[in-house]
Specification:
globular; single chain; mainly alpha; 71% helix; 227 residues
Length: 227
């Protein structure tokens, strides 16, 4: 007698990795649109095509889902940046590789800036139970590595003498603000700020701006900022 394999549906415990990934993908979209206060587990389960019992099998409550979303947001960015910072390159090229990797990650994850903005706002009001962990796990290592790179470039005579405590926030703002403010730019310009051509132009502008702000006069942008 011929045996017929029976596949369990996605919304079951038979596909744990796929089910969890679907829930997280739906949760990123929900938290991006509604924030943690407005997000609903019903909507997440419906979008992920799982029942709520399965959702709570993987995540005990909405707070646990939100924590996993933050890890996905910041963990993915940290991984992309660490790859760039681990390249064996001179300081200028490595700095541009970092900027390019940071920009490209945000550009390819347009739902993430609203989540980051929302978490920063909650932390500013003392309402985030995740912020200390996120800062310790993701922000501090990134700040330390980029700060060390700036100091290396300054010592090598490639960078102007800047204070990393001031330059790093300014650099990140140049990378990220465009995406956070895309709806405003859409209204101002009447064009799509997230079109591929516009994103490519913005990437070049960001690399040029940071190069002009940091590199000593006469230095040219190098292959570290390659597309």
């Amino acid at each position: 007698m011929k045996t017929v394999a029976v596949k369990s549906r996605l919304g079951s415990r038979g596909h744990p990795e796929e089910s969890r990934a679907a829930i997280l993908q739906a949760a990123v979209a929900e938290f991006s649109r509604e924030g943690i206060a407005g997000a609903r587990t019903d909507a997440i389960a419906r979008s992920a095509r799982v029942n709520k019992a399965l959702l709570y099998y993987y995540f005990k409550d909405k707070g646990a889902i939100y924590g996993a979303v933050l890890d996905q947001v910041f963990g993915g960015l940290a991984q992309a940046i660490q790859i760039a910072l681990s390249e064996d390159l001179p300081p200028r090229e490595k700095l541009l590789a970092y900027v390019g990797a940071h920009f490209d990650y945000i550009a390819s994850h347009p739902q993430y800036p609203p989540i980051v903005q929302g978490e920063m706002s909650r932390a500013g009001r003392g309402r985030s139970g995740q912020f200390e962990r996120i800062t310790r796990q993701y922000f501090q290592p990134l700040f330390s590595r980029v700060g060390a790179l700036l100091e290396q470039g300054i010592a090598a005579g490639e960078f102007r003498p800047v204070d990393p405590k001031d330059f790093i926030p300014s650099m990140i703002a140049v990378i990220v603000f465009y995406f956070s403010s895309a709806p405003v730019f859409r209204m101002i310009s009447g064009t799509d700020p997230m079109s591929s051509s516009r994103i490519a132009q913005r990437r070049e502008a960001v690399l040029d701006f940071i190069s002009a702000a940091l590199f000593r006069q006469g230095d040219q942008r190098s292959q570290g900022g390659r597309k």
